[in-house]
Design a protein that fits this description.
The chain is of the alpha/beta class. It has eleven helices and eight strands.
């Protein structure tokens, strides 16, 4: 085997493992370990004081509904406070939140979502601090299910299950999230999750981390909690829904922006340092996070090596593999005019993979702003 063949097969193997091999490994691992189902081993937890923090920028259309949604949770009213942190809103977000009955409303200058959340935690009275997006709607027992894992004193972070809804658009994000939630459940059973989501998650007040304002909680909290001796777990019965970006192209733009926040976490936020992980969690970080972020570069390497091998006449197998790669790109392009589920999935995969590399480019070229705006079509 030549060096070029070795590079091609290495890149292909890593892409396959990161997408399909890793979940299969977790399935086998979980069966061998006979791990318990999430929630079955947690001690009963008294109803602690909970502070539910919602960071909001120009959310007048949805903030009253979010406050009502929070107050409708199956949790004692005297043990729950809703804190709305307006991040430099220019509309009626503050007035709507107060009128809706939020216990605390902070009218802050624009500093970004993370700094607004920091301010909310500083104002919080709760032992458990819970976070939600302004447009996220929770099932009535979601808060109770989210708080339950804190019955284990070693748990410092819990994320719930988010389901994206949009019946009319072309976005395939819902398909991806079903895959992501299945992987997250296995990681949680075996060690800790490697990522969270902004729609529904919580931390102990004592475990809360103040991070760089461009480094969101979703990616920076789980691995940093593990480094500090906490477990970061997934509570699948803590369910929320959010309206997804309607189109794949809109999702591409959203993920590109998200990756401009994620790359600083990967490259200078401590994710690459294995100190404090343990062998199992280090494997999870490599397989679920680092391979995913390397995927656009692995695709380029596999394609370039494949072209060289075909030109060199290395064998019919390389003609087939090159044809398969070109077919994927052609299917993604065709989905722009033909609404077919397989073509849309191909387009989603190609554009979201490209967004990883372009997010890195954006961050390296001009940095990443701490501020954020709601993606179009999600309110």
């Amino acid at each position: 085997m030549t060096a070029v063949e070795g590079l091609f097969w290495l890149a292909t193997a890593l892409l396959f493992f990161g997408t399909a091999g890793y979940p299969l490994l977790l399935e086998v691992w979980a069966k061998l370990a006979r791990s318990h189902s999430l929630g079955s081993a947690y001690a009963p937890l008294a109803e602690p004081m909970v502070s539910l923090v919602v960071a909001a920028h120009d959310e007048e259309a949805v903030i009253a509904g979010k406050v009502a949604d929070a107050h409708a949770q199956a949790w004692p009213a005297d043990r729950l406070e809703v804190i709305v942190c307006s991040d430099g809103s220019t509309d009626a977000t503050v007035a709507e939140a107060r009128a809706a009955g939020a216990e605390v409303v902070l009218d802050l200058p624009r500093g970004g979502k993370v700094r607004a959340q920091d301010a909310g935690v500083e104002a919080a009275r709760g032992e458990i601090v819970v976070f939600a997006d302004a447009n996220a709607r929770w099932e009535p027992d979601a808060l109770r299910e989210l708080v339950a894992p804190f019955g284990d004193p070693g748990v410092g972070y819990v994320c719930g299950q988010v389901r994206f809804v949009n019946e009319e658009g072309s976005n395939q994000e819902g398909l991806y999230w079903r895959y992501e939630m299945a992987v997250r459940a296995l990681e949680s059973r075996l060690a800790s999750v490697t990522g969270g989501n902004g729609a529904i998650y919580a931390t102990r007040r004592a475990a809360y981390l103040v991070v760089d304002p461009i480094m969101g909680h979703d990616l920076s909290f789980p691995f940093n909690m593990v480094k500090r001796g906490w477990r970061a777990v997934y509570a699948p019965r803590a369910r929320a829904t959010e309206k997804m970006v309607p189109s794949i192209e809109g999702e591409f733009a959203r993920k590109r922006r998200m990756m401009s926040h994620a790359w600083p976490i990967v490259l200078r936020g401590g994710m690459l340092s294995p100190r404090g992980y343990g062998a199992a969690y280090a494997l999870m970080i490599f397989s679920h996070r680092l391979l995913r972020y390397a995927s656009p570069f692995l695709h380029v390497l596999a394609f370039a090596a494949n072209v060289v091998l075909v030109v060199a006449g290395a064998g019919a197998v390389y003609v087939v593999t090159l044809a398969a790669q070109l077919a994927l790109v052609a299917a993604a392009a065709a989905a722009g005019t033909v609404r077919s589920r397989p073509l849309l999935v191909a387009r989603y995969y190609v554009l979201t993979t490209a967004s990883v590399a372009l997010g890195l480019w954006d961050w390296l070229r001009h940095g990443t702003a701490a501020g954020w705006d709601a993606p179009e079509g999600t309110r």
